[in-house]
Inverse folding.
């Protein structure tokens, strides 16, 4: 989790997702019950996913 906080100081990128309202409410309640916020839980989950699956090689072209 320390890496997440440190990297957030270097810059941020906003990601928007669409999820069903009920799932959002359940997620928010579950995170709050554990004293966490949704952003921190999602960042941790994304970091674990990247650690498990690696990163994609850099793409050539205008978008990277």
């Amino acid at each position: 989790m320390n890496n997440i906080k440190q990297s957030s100081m270097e810059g941020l990128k906003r990601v928007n997702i669409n999820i069903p309202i009920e799932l959002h409410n359940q997620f928010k309640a579950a995170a709050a019950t554990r004293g966490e916020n949704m952003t921190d839980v999602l960042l941790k989950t994304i970091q674990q996913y990247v650690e498990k699956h690696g990163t994609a090689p850099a793409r050539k072209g205008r978008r990277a």
The first helix runs from residue 2 to 8. The radius of gyration is 15 Å.
